[in-house]
Specification:
Largest sheet: 9 strands, mixed
Radius of gyration: 28 Å
Number of helices: 13
Distance between the termini: 40 Å
Helix content: 25-40%
């Protein structure tokens, strides 16, 4: 999965860039670089002074070419978005970076999850990664993902203030967690721009002492690995599918004859409705083939999530799933108020669950019973238990669970998001903390809704 979640919005206030003095004479460059987070805070402050034609930090002489490089990069037209060209990612650079990553992955002990995943991938999976990583067209499409904030628990900050002899100043600053700390905000006169110009980062890194705070990030030393994270996230579906084809292709082909396979993976994951929780990896767990499926006659936004037991290299229950799943699909699609809601919000997705041999799994029923008992609704549990094999379990978004009873009444079991309420409001229900797999939002409800969308109790 991807670890970059919240988008950076780039706003260009002045396309021509900040105004600089016509013939600027630099008096001093002040650099403040700090870092804070769960670790020990760090801070570097220094001043580059211009005196008698020389630049110095304290008593140490600075190469004037480094200063001129920084000034020149700041004056360059703003880069409105990151590009392979500005970042120096030629085909040769990508090839060399892929070589380094593959070498590091071969000896990775789990310190980085992407390298560990690459190191333990099959030959086909490694080939998929390399083809993607070294393809400039592919990389151009995913490049911006590197610069989405935020992905770590640190809070870097850099501010460079350039003071001129005429009293004017230019400031360059960033709080980005991304490589090269892009984008930079450049302020001069009354104008401000944000730019993804790597040249500013490279020039600034050349001025900083080797152990200066944030220097490694400013210099982009982790760019190749940051790209690996982005690529692995972009190819995750194909990566997982490759693994399934290698270990469960017979089941994949058989199911693929009846459904369009949207995604496939084999893993030991668990949730409130499936899988076995194994504390500290002690005891025997459970692996499952996870599938997201559609059929041509499904309405928009409706899919099937099938979870089939994978044991000793074999997927169990394929024939039973193909035989019995359609009746749960028909039930889930037959509820009048839910059908009306799909027409009103066609992109509002719901997924029918299938676990091993039925829709409402034994684990799901066990957790449902515990949740409802805590709410004093044991009678509802008894009613659901009597028709367990006929109940369709629906997931909305993630962690929002509804049960469709054979008579097309629906039970809101638990929800995490407003989307999971399927058009209802929070104020319509009384939610309480669930007994297990408790989320930060929402809770367990146990509300009963009629086929026409009326709250029964």
């Amino acid at each position: 999965m991807l670890r970059y979640a919240v988008s950076i919005v780039v706003v260009v206030v002045a396309l021509s860039g900040p105004a600089f003095p016509a013939d600027p004479a630099v008096r001093q460059i002040e650099i403040k670089s700090s870092w804070g987070g769960l670790g020990r805070p760090q801070n570097t402050e220094l001043a580059v002074r211009h005196d008698n034609g020389e630049y110095r930090i304290g008593g140490t002489r600075i190469d004037p070419a480094n200063v001129e490089s920084l000034l020149a990069s700041i004056r360059q037209p703003p880069q409105l978005k990151p590009t392979l060209e500005n970042l120096g990612m030629t085909e040769q650079w990508l090839t060399n970076a892929a070589d380094r990553l593959e070498k590091d992955a071969a000896h990775n002990d789990g310190g980085d999850s992407v390298l560990y995943k690459l190191g333990h991938g099959s030959a086909d999976q490694k080939g998929l990664f390399r083809r993607s990583y070294t393809d400039p067209n592919f990389m151009a499409k995913v490049l911006s993902e590197i610069f989405r904030c935020c992905h770590t628990d640190d809070y870097p900050g850099v501010k460079v203030t350039i003071l001129y002899d005429d009293g004017s100043r230019t400031t360059v600053s960033s709080h980005s967690q991304s490589e090269f700390m892009l984008p930079w905000k450049v302020e001069g006169g009354s104008a401000t721009v944000e730019t993804f110009n790597k040249n500013i980062s490279v020039a600034l890194a050349a001025l900083l002492p080797k152990k200066a705070t944030n220097r490694e990030r400013i210099s982009g030393q982790g760019l190749d690995l940051a790209l690996a994270w982005v690529v692995m996230g972009a190819i995750e579906g194909d990566w997982n599918l490759s693994n399934v084809k290698a270990h469960a292709n017979e089941a994949l082909v058989k199911i693929g004859n009846a459904y369009k396979i949207l995604s496939a993976d084999i893993n030991p994951y668990h949730d409130v409705t499936f899988g076995i929780y194994v504390k500290d990896n002690k005891g025997e767990g459970e692996e499952n083939l996870h599938l997201e499926l559609k059929r041509s006659d499904f309405p928009q936004g409706f899919a099937v999530t099938a979870i089939l037991l994978y044991r000793d290299g074999t997927v169990l229950g394929v024939d039973q799933f193909l035989q019995d799943a359609p009746r749960y699909e028909d039930l889930a699609l037959s509820v009048p108020w839910l059908a009306n809601l799909r027409e009103e919000y066609p992109k509002w997705g719901t997924s029918l669950l299938w676990v091993h041999d039925k829709s409402l799994s034994d684990k799901a029923l066990q957790n449902f019973a515990a949740d409802m008992h805590a709410l004093g609704k044991d009678a509802l549990v008894n009613e659901v238990r009597q028709v367990q094999s006929q109940v369709a379990a629906l997931n909305v978004s993630y962690g929002d669970w509804w049960l469709v009873l054979p008579d097309r009444r629906m039970v809101l079991w638990r929800y995490e998001s407003v989307m999971g309420l399927l058009g209802w409001k929070k104020s319509d229900f009384s939610a309480h903390e669930c007994t297990d797999y408790q989320a930060n939002n929402g809770g367990c409800v146990g509300a009963l809704i009629s086929p026409d969308g009326e709250l029964v109790k």
